[in-house]
Amino acid sequence: MSFDTAEPLHHPMATFYAEQVHSHILADDQQALRKYQRRIRAELERFGIAVDQLRDKTILDIGSGWQAIVFQQLGCRQVYHLDINSRHVKFLNRYCADNQIANIISEQADISLSLGSAKQIDLAFVAGVYHHLQDREGFIKNLLPNMAANSDILFRVYRAGTWSRWLTSALRVASADRLTPTQLLSAYRLLHPYGEDNQFVGDMIDDLLTPQWLAFHPREFIADAELLSLQCQCLSEPFAFDFSSQDENFRVKWHIADKNGFHNLLHPLTTGKAHIVDETNAPLEIAELHEQLLDLLANLNRHTERDAALVVVSLYFLVRKHTHIDAFNGQISHAPENPDLAAWRIEHLKKSLLHFRNWLNQ
Fold first, then answer.
1. Which domains does the chain have, with CATH numbers?
2. Which of 30, 176, 300, 333 has its CA 20 to 30 A from that of 52?
3. Main-chain dihedrals φ then ψ at residue 93, nearest 5 degrees
4. CB 118 within 8 Å of CB 144
5. What secondary structure letter does DSSP report for 327?
């Protein structure tokens, strides 16, 4: 998938995803389509929503456009697609024209200000979006009046308290507003020259450099549902802090039976407030490690961008899976998960911090 590159930057998020994130993750059209086909079916299944239930429904999709294509393939009556970036909109409109699809309407919009033509929405798919919005209350105020009776909003949101979100939030201290995607990519290729994992690279640039990045606890979405008199189904383990293999996301479904609670939109939302992840109840070992990590990252200010990028990307390999290339045997190998993963990650982060302190002090 290719995007035009002439559009000026009107908003911090306007070109970031198309040019820096999705250019990697969506490099292979067919692979991208298969990915979103699996994802949407899995998300619907989690909440017990059968594909047949979507046949006469109006869907709102926000993002790159691939999810809208999948919803149309699943037989939805009408699909509205919104994205702040015109490249994604142009791509989807070209795709619809080339494939003679008439029931997808794709429009450029800042969803905190407008939902464009979208109305009477039966299912809003807000996956991987809410934690990147600067004005979340503005979005909810726009969305709820345009939802139909007996409709659903599906959220997939970054989960505070997981290893990946904890480590990412710390690494952003040294990367956001300082490093560039090119510098991160150069460091990645120095560290891993045998083949690029596009999903890993796109996620890395997304996590470390996106202008707006938040992580939430499920209880905050439950509180907002109560405020708005909405039914809430939350698929999340009740842990406060877990640094092993827990999913970095959690899922929530808000069900709108009627619109009686919408007057409460005048009250501030829990998820709409300036959000700082509270890690004060983390295990003592993690709290101490957090201080050491922040000290190392603060020390990067005295070093070059190249060295800073190498340290940050090296540590990011402890955040998520990577397609490991076995250069000796010429194959991809998949190691089984360590049975004591939390202890393994903590120990290797300790070793990494010691290694990089010594390296930077040489």
1. 16-161+214-266 (3.40.50.150), 163-192+204-210+281-360 (no CATH)
2. 30
3. -65, -35
4. no
5. T
